[in-house]
Amino acid sequence: MTNVTQNRPLSPHLSIYKQIPTMVMSILHRLTGMALYAGTILVAWWLIAAASGPEYFDWVNGIFGSLLGRLVLFGYTWALVHHLLGGIRHFIWDTGHGFDPQTSTKMAWATITGSVILTVLIWIAGYATRF
C-alpha cells in the first residue's frame, strides 16, 4: 500500500502569499463580524441591567465605565464602523465597480482610515454631549 498523502500537492497557506491590503481587509471584515457577536452580548447585558433595577445597572455601568470597559467599548465601536465600511466596499463590488487593483487597494486603505477616523469622531461626539 502506498502513502497517497506524500504524492498530493500541498495547498498554499496564508504565510506563503504576499499580504496585500485587500486580503488584510477581507480577514479583518470576518474578524470584526465575529467581534460584533461578542459586543452585541455586552449591549444585551447592559439593556438587561437597565431593566433589572438601579443597583444592578449602576454596577454594570461601573464595569463599562472603567478603563478596560471603555477600551472594550471603543473596540466594539471600531469593529462596528469597520464592518459597516467593509460592507459598503463589498456593495460597491456587487455593482461591478472597483475591481482593478489600484481602486481596490485605495478602497481597502479608505476602509481602515475611515473606520479609525469615524470611531474617534463618534467618541468625541459622545464625550462632548456628556454632562
- Record field, number of beta strands: 0
Helix content: over 70%
Cα radius of gyration in angstroms: 21 Å
CATH topology annotation: 3 helical TM bundles of succinate and fumarate reductases
Q: Structural class, judged by helices and strands?
A: mainly alpha
Order of helices and strands: HHHH
- The total of helices stands at 4
Euclidean distance between termini CA atoms? 77 Å
Tally of individual domains: 1
CATH architectural designation: Up-down Bundle
Give a structural overview.
This protein has about 130 residues and is mainly α. It has one domain: Fumarate reductase/succinate dehydrogenase, transmembrane subunit (3 helical TM bundles of succinate and fumarate reductases, Up-down Bundle). It contains four helices and no strands. Helix 1 packs antiparallel against helix 2 and helix 1 runs parallel beside helix 4. The mean pLDDT is about 90. Membrane-anchoring subunit of succinate dehydrogenase (SDH). GO terms for molecular function: electron transfer activity; metal ion binding. Keywords: Heme, Iron, Membrane, Metal-binding, Transmembrane, Transmembrane helix.
Question: Helices and strands in order, then pairings?
Answer:
Layout (H helix, E strand, L loop, with lengths): L20 H32 L1 H12 L1 H28 L6 H28 L3
Short summary of the structure?
With about 130 residues, the chain is mainly α. Helix content is about 75%, strand content about 0%.
